[in-house]
Specification:
The structure is a homodimer of 344-residue chains.
Chain A: H1 6-13, H2 17-25, H3 34-47, H4 53-60, E1 65-70, H5 79-92, E2 96-101, H6 106-118, E3 123-134, E4 144-151, E5 158-161, H7 163-176, E6 182-186, H8 195-209, E7 219-221, H9 226-237, E8 247-250, H10 253-265, E9 275-280, H11 283-286, E10 294-297, H12 300-311, E11 323-325, E12 329-330
Parallel strand pairs in A: 1-2, 1-3, 3-4, 4-5, 5-11, 6-7, 6-8, 8-9, 9-10
Antiparallel strand pairs in A: 10-12
Helix pairs in contact in A: 1-2, 1-3, 5-12, 7-8, 9-10
Chain A binds a DNA duplex (30 and 30 nucleotides) through residues 5-7, 15-19, 21-22, 25, 27-28, 31-33, 36, 51-61.
Protein name (chains A, B): LacI family transcriptional regulator
Domain HTH lacI-type (chains A, B): 4-60
Pfam family, one (chains A, B): LacI
Chain lengths: 344, 344
DNA sequence: CTTCTGTGTTTAATCGATTAACTGCCGCGC
DNA sequence: GCGCGGCAGTTAATCGATTAAACACAGAAG
């Protein structure tokens, strides 16, 4: 591999390494004569010189590497979009990202933070795959950015999805279609995962603004997969006919998938007999089930970008309050007007 | 952050930096007296010393970082499992992975390879998200491992899924259940993506061994999503009754999802009226659709591990032939015996 | 003919470790 | 009493860049 050193270029061009360094880095290029500059550049190109970043980093105390520690890159299809956002920004600024997956294990997390600190990454991003409130792990450098989570203590830049607003948009979509009996198929209660609570707040807010009295029976919970969504939906169907919902807002797309199944088993057609809105915009589900699902998208790519921009210092941030990133509505075909009462 | 240098430890312990280095690295710990060793360790702990990997790398010419360049981490839910495998092995050997996503863009790929080379990563992994034959990009260091792709020219270690064998297992599952009219819902023809051809070979091989004459009408193609799978399946349903398949092997789970839709629209029940086998074991689909899908899993985690092990030199590899990694059968509920002819 | 002022380039220190080669000392054998 | 070997560490070179400070030379000013 590239065994060519700067001194080789210097010899080839008949100058000192200082000159080579100045020419190639652009610094003080006004102090070096054009002829010399050309000679240096030619020599460098001729012998195929590529700078050794390790040596440069040692001297400049900057590695141009950003550490990204995440709990689980493996088990969620979201991870990629966050990484992609961070990666794109890093690349555009000539930086590299060093990724560590900690499997949500405290010991591994500590080890990862140490390794990255030892490697002298310029900054760090601490990412979690589900919007949470976390305790900032010890040893994090001051220039750490929290991604899709926020530190309980505050004091760090952080970005999370605006889940309350997402709940608003989703519910409003249903209200706008004419629904009045709107259920919320929620995740199990968990105080660390704040998305569930926030989306519920948004849901209630819209009901209030539409003058709809919330029916507690329409707020059901289940584990956050298709099975849980199906079971929760079946609970709703068990209600007396006049209390049954004409529309369901599901905590996520997987639960929505379960709601589809429950509906079909009952002979209900979507969106004719039942409207459904999901959350997450999981490509594999939302775009592919039948009919395609109207859902609220999580801004993972944008959050990844934002976090990296702050980490690189090219964007200002507020250390006291996390940035709430907008969750856009993705309209597909699972929402329609409520069925007209029998015998229309 | 850690501004503590080795010389600070040396002063605190009243020895030279050479001694500190030897004690802390373990090398030549037989040359240093136990008392001195203890003194050094205490001093290091007391002032919170952490070695500077950049300086060490410069001296030792090893960075303990492995570069991983991949085409798309963003758009596939598989990526995570490959990364996780590679990451786990790297961690267990005290290495870090530097990830670059190139968006399948040649210019970005070149730039990434340069950046990683400049950063003096110890080895590189060149990953693609779909099993392919690729031209090895210029500039790749000699110790590069190909992951989920193999270089057309050969000469590098590479690992890919054993797609032919996957086709065999899938088809055999259907034959074993008693099916004789088995369709293959294939991806569009594409010579670079070799999975399609290989799985088809496996499919034909099993038909042959079972003494079934392949019916060309049962080999249909479509784009590799639910829509494509549904359209292709509907083609099959359009066949005269006696030529229609009782079982379908789908190129991937998304197409299988489309096959489900087509079946339900026709009033067919799975697996009673139609058996289906998918490929990929996409968690979000396979485990969650109704009924859960029997499918062939892609060994992404294992491939990621293997590639990293070879990159770190802890595993031997053959540079002439890619390793074919086994694709295990995941049995769920979408396969049953063929329906007995009407009026059983 | 000095002294001064800019240019253009070089010298050398530095970043923080690793490690080959060396030193000083003690004990032992003859 | 002298030399030799082994122990316990130290000295100093090295990795490959960056960069402040020094320097050499030419032309202008006095």
């Amino acid at each position: 591999m590239a065994r060519v050193r700067m001194s080789d270029v210097a010899v080839a061009a008949g100058v000192s390494t200082a000159t080579v360094s100045m020419v190639l880095s652009g610094a003080g290029s006004d102090r070096i004569s054009p002829q010399t500059q050309a000679r240096v550049r030619e020599a460098a190109a001729a012998i195929g010189y590529a700078p050794n970043s390790v040596a440069r980093s040692l001297r400049t105390q900057r590695t141009r590497m950003i550490g990204l520690v995440s709990d689980t890159i493996a088990t969620t299809p979201f991870a990629g979009r966050m990484l992609a956002g961070a990666n794109d920004v890093a690349r555009d600024h000539g930086n590299l990202v060093v990724l560590v997956n900690t499997d949500d294990d405290a010991a591994q997390e500590r080890q990862a933070i140490q390794a990255l600190t030892g490697q002298r990454v310029d900054a760090m991003i601490y990412a979690r795959m589900w919007h949470r409130v976390v305790d900032a792990p010890a040893g994090l450098p001051a220039d750490t950015v929290f991604l899709d989570c926020r530190p309980a203590q505050g004091g760090w830049p952080a970005v999370v999805p605006d889940d309350r607003r997402g709940g608003v948009v989703a519910t409003r979509e249903l209200v706008a279609a004419g629904h009045r009996r709107i259920a919320y198929v929620d995740a199990p209660r968990d105080d660390e995962v704040v998305a569930s609570r926030l989306r519920h707040e948004g849901y209630l807010e819209v009901l209030a603004e539409a003058g709809i009295t919330p029916d507690p029976a329409l707020h059901v919970r289940g584990i956050t997969d298709a099975g849980g969504g199906r079971a929760a939906t079946e609970e709703l169907f068990a209600l007396p006919a006049e209390r049954r919902p004409t529309a369901i807002f599901c905590f996520n797309d997987r639960m929505a998938m379960g709601a589809y199944t429950a509906a079909y088993r009952r002979g209900l057609r979507i969106p004719d007999d039942l409207s459904i809105v999901g959350y997450d915009d999981q490509q594999l589900i939302a775009a592919e089930i039948d009919p395609p699902l109207t859902t609220v998208a999580l801004p993972h790519y944008e959050m990844g970008r934002w976090a990296m921009e702050v980490a690189l210092g090219v964007r200002e941030s507020d250390r006291d309050a996390p940035l709430l990133m907008d969750c856009p509505m993705i309209r597909r075909d699972s929402v329609g007007p409520p069925p007209t009462p029998a015998g229309n």
